[in-house]
Design the sequence.
């Protein structure tokens, strides 16, 4: 039997419920972000930082759910999904990007960037920022330049000390026209393939080798399917944090700023992880059984590419190439 006291309390609560407005539960929008490599990587560090920062800077109104190792598709598929709005965000290499925004292709020319500092300064500077303005017309918003890293050659056949050692190797490449054109000049048989298929292709010998930055070679455990690596550093591979324009257009001005600031923090985490991988990965991969050629005469590889550089000069304009190469 309820006491008079309890009954009174109940009556008061009922009245309050009728009179006082109930604070609406805070609406939270969950956005999906997909990457091609594992969480324990330079991309995983970036997108996890992005998720933390977005939730913090929007007071929980936006939450990013991250998908790793190409769970929602490889890089080109992710970009297509952003365009049709079935995916919200991705961190992708520039590999497949020229298929969508051709102006970016120039960045994939071999030996264009001298080192990480010069590459980062160029992308964070007017040349890189101007390129980001080309994306909205393709249904994409480029929030920031991330990084994949300087790419190196691996294979299962033989050590590579000079370009001649590359002749006849069937090498997986990104779906990138500039890379494929250049690698042909080395006598490589370029085999474009989505990243999500590479480990199996190496394991089954469908291809002899591949080329990627140390961060990717480590994260993807390519030491398990590749015997030889040479630190060619033949291409600097930028990356991009992309958002679907349809999702971006729904953001308030304040939330647009929050996403841009979060992307900046993501890039800091991305580059810091790469700096760390660059220090540790060679010893780690060697300890796992890889035979690694650390010092190569890069001028030999550049000489082998001379005819292709001339073609790139015509295609992109030598002055545009020099502007990037000489940017400080
Ligand atoms: O962006 O496809 C590649 O080789 C890329 O380097 C990888 O997906 C990370």
Sequence:
């Amino acid at each position: 039997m309820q006491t008079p006291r309890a009954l009174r309390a109940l009556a008061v609560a009922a009245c309050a419920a009728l009179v006082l407005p109930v604070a609406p539960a805070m609406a939270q929008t969950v956005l999906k972000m997909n990457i091609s490599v594992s969480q324990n990587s330079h991309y995983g560090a970036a997108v996890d930082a992005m998720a933390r920062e977005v939730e913090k800077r929007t007071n929980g109104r936006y939450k990013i759910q991250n998908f790793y190792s190409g769970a929602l598709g490889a890089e080109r598929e992710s970009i297509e999904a952003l365009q049709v709005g079935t995916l919200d965000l991705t961190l992708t290499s520039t590999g497949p990007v020229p298929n969508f925004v051709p102006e970016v292709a120039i960045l994939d020319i071999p030996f264009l960037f001298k080192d990480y500092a010069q590459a980062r300064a160029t992308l964070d500077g007017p040349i890189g920022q101007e390129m980001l303005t080309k994306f909205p017309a393709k249904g994409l918003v480029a929030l920031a330049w991330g990084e994949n890293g300087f790419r190196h050659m691996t294979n299962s056949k033989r050590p590579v000390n000079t370009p001649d050692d590359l002749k006849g190797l069937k090498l997986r490449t990104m779906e990138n026209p500039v890379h494929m054109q250049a690698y042909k000049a080395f006598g490589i048989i370029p085999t474009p393939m989505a990243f999500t298929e590479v480990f199996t292709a190496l394991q089954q010998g469908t291809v002899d080798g591949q080329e990627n930055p140390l961060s990717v070679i480590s994260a993807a455990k390519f030491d398990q399917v590749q015997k030889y690596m040479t630190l060619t550093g033949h291409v600097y591979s930028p990356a991009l944090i992309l958002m679907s324009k349809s999702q971006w257009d729904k953001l308030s001005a304040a939330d647009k700023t929050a996403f841009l600031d979060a992307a900046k923090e993501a890039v800091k985490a991305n580059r810091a992880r790469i700096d760390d991988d660059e220090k540790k990965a060679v010893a780690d991969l060697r300890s796992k059984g890889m035979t690694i050629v650390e010092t190569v005469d890069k001028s030999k590889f550049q000489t082998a590419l001379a005819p292709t550089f001339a073609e790139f000069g015509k295609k992109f304009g030598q002055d545009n190439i020099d502007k990037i190469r000489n940017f400080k």
Observations:
- The chain has a mean pLDDT of 95.
- The first strand starts at residue 29 and ends at 34.
